[in-house]
Amino acid sequence: MEEEYRRLMARILKAVPGLTIDELEALVNEKVKTHPYLNKVGAILLVAEELKVLESKEVPEDLMEELAYTMIGDLVPGLNSVNVRGVVYAVIGPKIAGEHRILRLKIGDKTGVAEVYAWNEKIDELTSLSVKIGDSIAVMNAYTKDKIETGTVEIHVGKNSTIKKLPTDPAQPDPHLFYRTLSQVIMEGEGVYDMRGYLISISEEKKVATRYGEASVIELTLSDGSILAKLNVWRDMIEQFRNLSPGVEVFITDVKFQDGRFSLTSRSSLAMVNKVDLDKVKEIMDEQSGKKILRIIDVKTQPSYSIIIATDGRKIIQLTYRGGLDLKPGEYIEVYGLTDEKKTLGRITLEKEMIKKIESPGVEIPIPNRITSLRKIIEEKPDVLEDVTIEGTLYTKTNIVKVETRYGAAEKILFWLKDEDTAIRGVAWRSKAQEIAQIPEGEKIRLKWITVKLNLFNEPEIHVESYSKIEKI
């Protein structure tokens, strides 16, 4: 695309004597400002057309096709007459909202995801097209709004909008890939996600008393092969899940992850169910039935759960625990349902029946030495270091900024940690960004259980994880 832009620029400058590069760039930037859904190639094509430099037939057809659509990742709220294409990975509805019908499509491309909203008669147009998961579609002449819950962009099908099915595009991502695994969600942190998991078990429907009266509930146990998660399905949503049985992979939209717990929202929907080999489920269940003795290194207590940093003598393992046990560093616990931690990403969530305190393990479990120095990191430049502890002075930091991620807005801060003549840049997100922001520059700090990896410039970079611990020294 950059090559095409330079070619068009040279063509225009040659055809229009006296026009400078700066003047041409200003014309292009003005087009981008006026039409924010255009990329620079699209903008320079408009300039060329106005200057009567190019005939439309001179522009390659595939380039015109590419420029006709805005990439989903480039969408912003407030656009009118925008054209978008993507692969459908969820169809939700139609549902009744007041006096209207509403249908939601979730679509994605290689740059991001978005929801498409169709109302009333536009739903009939979609129905006539038989749009289904896996189809590539184009939404033409739509408008965009801000989705309040997540900060992402909504695409709305207006009266003058049209939707059409496109030929299958091998370059479009597989619809399954827009769903995060349990481990990926935990790594991303709190938020609302489209999520996938193997169904390990499903409970019988039961009635429970709530502050809103009696309600029906069933409990799902899901796994991605590394961790287990419980998910309660309440009231009207039960019908979607009632007839499921272990041996399938489920794809669920709009699942909230908060305080180490997964829960459905009012917008959640069971989008897809894929049959899997029962041997796969049995393998996961066999792994989850195992138990491991761990030594507690650190405990961070939250209002409704605790974050436990523990070790088996070789690796550092992060656990989220809900229960009544009073756990302290140096104590030993027996944990059920802990799979091979080499496959485990992020923090493992444990229900109260999956953990018990033990007085003596029979043999002392050593604590791995995970302390390293900034100088050693700079000298060795490892590709990745996980769960290490470093110390240094908070040399400087940026202000917190809100960044649009694939799953909504998130707070981010950059900082530099210095020790003598060595300094390394770090990044922290969400609650950890807030913690860093509260520490004055010049303060000496200790960062425990952080990750160090090489950035795009092949330089080591500190990543403060959601379970990392920040201490003033």
Tell me what the structure shows.
This protein is an alpha+beta fold and 473 residues long. It has 5 domains: 2-61, no CATH class; 74-175, Beta Barrel (OB fold (Dihydrolipoamide Acetyltransferase, E2P)), CATH 2.40.50; 179-276, OB fold (Dihydrolipoamide Acetyltransferase, E2P) (Beta Barrel); 290-358, OB fold (Dihydrolipoamide Acetyltransferase, E2P) (Beta Barrel); 374-472, OB fold (Dihydrolipoamide Acetyltransferase, E2P). The protein has helices spanning 2-15, 21-34, 40-50, 61-67, 121-129, 182-188, 238-241, 278-288, 374-380, 430-437; strands at 82-97, 100-109, 112-119, 136-146, 153-156, 162-166, 191-202, 206-210, 213-223, 228-234, 248-258, 261-275, 291-301, 306-311, 316-321, 332-336, 348-350, 355-358, 384-397, 401-405, 408-419, 422-429, 444-454, 460-464, 469-472. Strands 7, 8, 9, 10, 11 and 12 form a 6-stranded antiparallel β-sheet that branches. α1 runs parallel beside α3 and α2 packs across α3. The longest helix is centred in the N-terminal third of the chain and has 14 residues, at 2-15. The radius of gyration is 26 Å and the shape is flat.
